[in-house]
Every structure is written in structure tokens, then in C-alpha cells.
Amino acid sequence: MTAEELKSIIAAGLPCDHLEVEGDGRHWSAVIVSSEFEGRRPIQRHQRVYATLGARMHTDEVHALSMKTFTPAEWAAAPQP
Predict the structure, then answer these.
(1) pLDDT at 40
(2) CA dist list (Å): 5 to 15, 22, 27, 37
(3) How many CB atoms lie within 10 A of CB 28?
(4) Tell me, what CATH number does 45's domain have?
(5) Four-CA torsion 59, 64, 70, 71, nearest 10 degrees
(6) How many domains does the chain have?
(7) CA 4 to chain centre
(8) How far is it, in rounded angstroms, from Cα 55 to Cα 64?
(9) What is the model's pLDDT at position 81?
(10) Domain range for residue 66?
(11) CA distance 2 to 4
């Protein structure tokens, strides 16, 4: 799987204001900004992203995914590199 494929899968299942995905084909990191994260705790946000990946997490297609999740307001307030 490529970073673009993983990005497309996440974006298809979760409306994202901003989405960055990097990785080596098995180990991934993502920055995800979505209004669906409003009022949700970090674990609930991660569960929402995992739900978009479905069986891919269980079949080892996506071995590991490290996430930073933000609401649009949190992202706007976060220092940008």
C-alpha cells in the first residue's frame, strides 16, 4: 500500500479538513484534522480512524498507524512548522 492509497481510504471514510500520511508501506504516521473529532476524546478519535480502515488493520495490510488528530479549531491554534 502506498501513502496515497492509505490517504484515500481514510478520506473516503472520514471527512478531513487536512490529512497527511507518511510511511514505509507497513508503518504509518498521519496528521488528521476533522470536524468529526469535536467533543471526542483521543481514543475515540483513533477508533473513528481505525473504523475507516476496517479489516486492513486486522490483516496486517496496515501494520501500525501513529496518529495526531485535531479538530479544525485545534489545528488552527497549533503551531505550524
Answers:
(1) 97
(2) 16, 11, 14, 22
(3) 21
(4) 3.30.300.90
(5) 0
(6) 1
(7) 12
(8) 13
(9) 64
(10) 3-77
(11) 5
- Count the Cβ atoms, other than its own, within 10 Å of residue 76: 11
pLDDT recorded at residue 26: 82
Cell of 33: 484534522
Residue with cell 512548522: 81
Give, for all 81 residues of the chain, the pLDDT tens digit: 899 999 999 999 999 999 999 998 888 999 999 999 999 999 999 999 999 998 888 777 788 899 999 999 999 998 876
